[in-house]
From TrEMBL:
Lineage: Bacteria, Pseudomonadati, Bacteroidota, Sphingobacteriia, Sphingobacteriales
InterPro entries: DinB-like, DinB/YfiT-like
Domain called DinB-like: residue spans: 86-151
Superkingdom classification of source: Bacteria
SUPFAM superfamilies: DinB/YfiT-like putative metalloenzymes (SSF109854)
This protein's name: DinB family protein
Length: 175
């Protein structure tokens, strides 16, 4: 795979991750602990960034544990069915995100033409994801950016706090 394409892909996926890191790290500690919606979005986006970066999803082994729960068992602020087993600190989530950021960078810069032909395949059920590697990386970027934007909106609405935009990986977060 052409190195310039890898750089472009990393610049944009990395920028999405940087924006997620930036919005969470810019969140005041008391708000992070008291605004359950913010917390659950931060947790969800972190877990799924890691999951979608695990090329064989069957090998997914998250650093922060969770339990899959039925709708009736979920907190109303939860995003989806993966509920954290405990309330993780902002620092724990940020540390995990930084590790995933490095994982994504390694994946992208080690891509070969053969690896692009591999698939991110969850299983054989009709709704299971079955995407080429390039597509799951782009999907992961969109998913991460979507939730970073939600977190930005919450901070803007609730605290009138503006968070910086990242044009490329590394321009707002030290590499």
């Amino acid at each position: 795979m052409d190195h310039s394409i890898k750089e472009i892909l990393w610049n944009q996926l990395g920028a999405s991750i940087d924006m997620l890191l930036n919005v969470i790290s810019s969140c005041p500690d008391d708000y992070f602990l008291t605004n359950k919606r913010f917390y659950f979005i931060a947790f969800h986006s972190t877990i799924f960034l890691d999951y979608y970066s695990t090329i064989s999803p069957q090998d997914f082994s998250p650093l922060l544990s969770f339990t899959q729960k039925e709708l009736s068992e979920r907190p109303k602020e939860a995003i989806g069915d993966l509920i954290p087993d405990e309330i993780y600190s902002k620092e724990e989530i940020l540390k995990y995100l930084k590790q995933i950021r490095e994982k994504c960078k390694r994946i992208i810069f080690s891509l070969t033409a053969d690896e692009l032909n591999k698939r991110f395949k969850e299983g054989d059920q009709p709704d299971d994801m079955d995407y080429p590697i390039l597509e799951i990386l782009l999907y992961n970027m969109r998913h991460t950016q979507h939730h970073a934007a939600q977190l930005n909106m919450l901070l803007r609405q609730d605290l009138d706090k503006h968070i910086e935009w990242s044009f490329r990986a590394g321009d707002i977060i030290d590499e």
